[in-house]
Design brief:
By secondary structure, this protein is mostly beta strands. Helix content is 14%, strand content 45%.
Length: 262
């Protein structure tokens, strides 16, 4: 029995060592910041050695750097929305240190992250599909100051709403977007002191376009939400000027209930 247990331990050690030997090596140095670029937002990171520090300056970039010279080697584990990948960290000379490592999506292990209902890649795919559909909400629009805001479509996919919005500029002055705000607010204002509103933040938007001359179209993704009939979902677009043009598009809950599927 003891021999079998010893054989099992030896096999496990050999398997672990073999797995580590097959990992891609990332060379690091205390004077160089190494940036690991992910194809999707990073959800979790583990660095097996305390000699190397790391942080996530933006959603899809992990930055690592040894705290001192002669840092001990270790394993770094990175989990995205739909993948898991590991690298072996090796202390090297400054001229050999990696400054940038791009994660190859074809060389990672699939991982079903329970905290992510839909990946950003899937959201982008559905949003592009939404843009191919013809507008169905032709009567949901708003005009003012030479601008037209229009709701094209609302789609429901899984636990998310996809809202397809268009803007049209009928003036000769280019429109630079300062911000687009989404709010659930009272449909009728009886007293200003009783007015209630809740700001909503999109989980994803297809384009980051900041300005346009004539036409603008984008798809915004929200976690599914509900609100009573006495309230509206208000989309407010403001221009980046001191006296900028502002236009609001109000969507009734009955319109939300007519959401189509993709």
């Amino acid at each position: 029995m003891k021999k079998l247990l010893l054989l099992y331990v030896l096999f496990a050690l050999l398997f672990s060592a073999s797995a580590q030997d097959s990992l891609q090596v990332v060379h690091v140095h205390e004077s160089i910041s190494t940036h690991i670029v992910s194809p999707e937002p990073i959800q979790y990171v583990d660095i097996s050695t305390d000699d190397v520090a790391g942080d996530i300056p933006v959603a899809n970039i992990l930055r690592v750097k040894p705290k001192h010279g002669g840092a001990k080697p270790g394993i770094i584990t990175i989990v995205g929305e739909r993948f898991l990948v590991q690298y072996k960290l090796a202390y090297s000379r400054a001229d050999r240190a990696d400054t940038e490592v791009r994660i190859d999506p074809t060389q990672v292990d699939d991982y079903l992250n329970p905290a992510v209902a839909m990946s950003r890649e899937d959201m982008a795919r559905f949003a592009l599909l939404a843009l191919q559909r013809k507008p169905q909400f032709n009567s949901v629009n708003s005009k003012g100051q030479g601008m037209l805001a229009k709701l094209n479509n609302i789609y429901t996919v899984g636990d998310y709403f996809f809202i397809d919005l268009s803007l049209r500029n009928d003036t000769n002055i280019p429109y630079t977007i300062d911000q687009i705000r989404f709010k659930i607010e009272d449909k009728k204002v009886v007293k200003a002191t009783n007015f209630q509103q809740v700001e909503m933040q999109p989980t994803f938007q297809l384009y980051d376009t900041g300005s346009f001359k004539r036409k603008y179209r984008n798809v915004f993704v929200f976690k599914k939400f509900t609100f009573p009939e006495e309230k509206v979902f208000n989309i407010e677009v403001a221009e980046e000027q001191i006296s900028g043009r502002t236009i609001s598009l109000k969507i009734d809950y009955s319109d939300i209930l007519h959401a189509d599927t993709l």
